[in-house]
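Morning!

As promised:
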Amino acid sequence: MCGIVGYLGPSQNSVQIVLEGLRRLEYRGYDSAGVSFLDEHDHLQNYKKAGKLDNLKMELIGKNVIARTCIGHTRWATHGGVTDENAHPHFNETLSIIHNGIIENANEIKKELMGHGVKFKSETDSESFLELTTFELKNGKPILEAIADSFKRIHGNSAFVILYPKTGEIFAIKRGAPLVCGINEITSEALVSSDPYALAGIVHKLYFPEDEVIVHLSGANKNLVNFYELKDLKKTTRYLSKKQDMSVEVSEKGEYEHFMLKEIHEQPGLIRNLTQYYFVGEGREALEKVAHYKPDRIYLSACGTAAYAGLVIRDFLEGINRIPATVELASEFRYRDPILKSGDVGIFVSQSGETADTLAAQSLCKKAGVKTLSIVNVDGSTLYRDCDDNLLIRAGIEIGVASTKAFTQQALTGRLMSAAMAGDLKDEAKKMKLTGKFALLAERIDHLLVKSEIIKTVAEAIYNKKGFFYTGRGVYFPLALEGALKLKEIAYVHAEGYAAGELKHGPIALIDEEMVNIALVGPELFEKTVSNIQEIKARKGIIVSIGPRNNEELMGLSDYYIPLDFDGLDELSPLYVNVVNQLLAYYMAKFKGTDIDKPRNLAKSVTVE
Ligand code: F6R
């Protein structure tokens, strides 16, 4: 959600540096973008534009943007429509601020300030913090105190970056939202951001402040960065510091038309590397730690695609380890007062490691004394830092907003965890066998990618139909949910994932010749799933079967048939089927002409609840 970048240093190119950081973060939110900077006369300049970052860049063409201090933002709208006025930064003659999160008591603060004659320019909640801090400054408080007192008043999870033109300094503070700062001592540059990726290649050292720590970027000749406690404004060491070792990964699409397609194609390589990493590489220690887990019960908690990957992991844990496991939507789990016991383990599945609800679910478990483990992509993310133990999914940066490779890597990391807990790490033969299975999965996906023309042809035939039911049974049911989600988010058509046996309990009333059933048919429960397809066929639904190759019965029933080779994949076959779903959604979206990598209304990392 919202990308934030702030820069203070000797370079007169700060606006370009901030824009480059925002470009890297644009996949997180792309409703509008803006920058504030101090020009060569130390005057505050502000530019903001609704729409993608390119609109802002166009606006800046030909403008004098020589500046040493700059803050910038890409927005994912929460309060107030997508307009130039509602874009960040929000500024007045005293301050400029950018915000990520929600101020729950914004209306109350606004009302109070309006009573003092303050006028608001936007419909955003963010502006209430700007005006509250300005009000405190006008009442004679020093800047640090003004920020602290305003921040203490606001409710909800937020991160702010504040540019104070009077001294040219930048301040930042957060509660329950991501924030990182970084320094380069050689060049005397200090930056702040919502994501370390924006700082890669510029800084050498990263600092992750804890909640309610005020970050102060002060410029050369002084400490580049200082940290103060919100409660008493005393200097603090409540932050985690870390060497910056992230390379500016190739964030180009290369030969692919979209990041999503590139990321789908990366899957075989990533799958092969995962067993290497965990069986012989750096990941061994983390997996060995998990091998000692003896939980009475496991709660898996996550959101969206990550929750569906959680369902696949649940099937491994229950099927292979026979440990009771449930998957909980983090947004519900955090509020439903679950019965947590000390023998339980909480597992949190996430690509970004910054999803607000998943973080809250983790915190709930931690407070209840439950051991917490993350299955996460971003090393050093909040979830990674907060959990007792971590298993990295090693998917590399995922730019496409619709998650693809992260799902596969999350589920497979779960499979490795289940092997570790079953004691397989001590048995070379078992490790070899599993490595072979992963390699076979990678190979089958490679074949599928080569034959993706078949999937494209099916997509072309059905993309304009009225609605889509993805159905599956057993271990294929999670894929029905995930397949439908992928289609909804990138092709903007109504799709639902359903357990194949459930359709006749209501939704079958929707079936007619304009409705498509994407039937996911594995070798398990084959006959029963075929019967469910018959029921839809009898009501004139269009049948697209994704199932075992050379099956005459299924072929005869289907309007379109995508044959697969399941042999030897066993419990990993759901991951193979899921790649068909990814490609089908991708091609349907392509025929529809939607913005595949940045679908409307979405953001990559959902840091608000
Ligand atoms: C869908 C998608 C989302 C995320 C969800 C959780 O394609 O990407 O449903 O899976 O927002 O995000 P993370 O995994 O970052 O916690």
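Residues 303-306, 350-352, 355, 358, 402-403, 485, 489, 605-606 surround fructose -6-phosphate (CB under 6 Å).

Hope this helps with the figure draft.
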